[in-house]
């Protein structure tokens, strides 16, 4: 495809804009009306806390059933996302840009004194637009930060399923595509099953909502996390049985570390005396967990994340670096985030953090980093 054709196919059509806005509107409605566990968020600096309706799994299952019904009746094309991929990409970028500008304006004009909506203005407009001004902005009662994460994760699944449909339509479905689809689908549904764990992550409790998070949730997650699927549509990869087994081992290891580490942290925040690996937890200064995976590395959940990202790319083989963009990007991102986390924790916990670092010297990968 030449540059002119590429630019032409990237211009959002009314159909792609309608699809995108319908998707967000649909998610907003079902997220508000479907039953779900009400999970209290972290206690904010003013003593208040938000509550989240965690019905992501039910919402995603209902969405897949409705989508299946639409495909069966011919109302929806199973390959519509693939067919309009560039249009949806550019439409999502424009939407993210506009939303982040509106959030910036709303934050600057806010007079709210509560921790969730209190404006944090640095004076640098670009900085405030990028990192955000308010911690938990809302629209019509919907927590936007929580909503955008859900929209991005489910969007990733929908893109993958459209890629799978296109692969079947083209007659090039193979073991590599099946592996990639199984890993991602399991990971996404598992994410929604444990959606309440998201409420205790750094993004939710500490990051303000600006372009960085809006763009990351709505565009970066669905469109870059699915690069391997797009690549497999155009490239045939024949994996040996040994390669499949090795890939499965990497996935299982990554999932185990990622899920268990996040579970331990979440349980500890709810009940600091809950046993970990059958023993009372070791707690530094009454605040920092140094047991289980958190006694092995200070950000061991990032190791699980990296292994999972690698397992999503391994079905593509080693003939091209393109499918490995996601794990390489994630490695850079997590090291950058880990450094920011460490600086904030050192400022927040002071001597307690220094003691924790002595007991747990490794940042992500023991004996390496």
Account of the protein in words:
It is built from 15 helices and 6 strands. A hairpin with a 2-residue loop joins strand 3 and strand 4 (142-143). Strands 1-2 form a two-stranded antiparallel ribbon. Strands 3-4 form a two-stranded antiparallel ribbon. The protein has helices at 3-10, 14-33, 56-72, 80-83, 85-109, 125-131, 144-170, 175-193, 202-205, 211-224, 227-234, 241-270, 300-313, 325-349, 351-359, and strands at residues 37-40, 51-54, 138-139, 142-143, 283-284, 288-289. The chain crosses the membrane at residues 20-44, 56-76, 88-108, 147-165, 177-197, 209-233, 239-258, 279-296, 308-336. It is an enzyme of class 1 (oxidoreductase). InterPro entries: ERG24_DHCR-like, Sterol_reductase_CS.
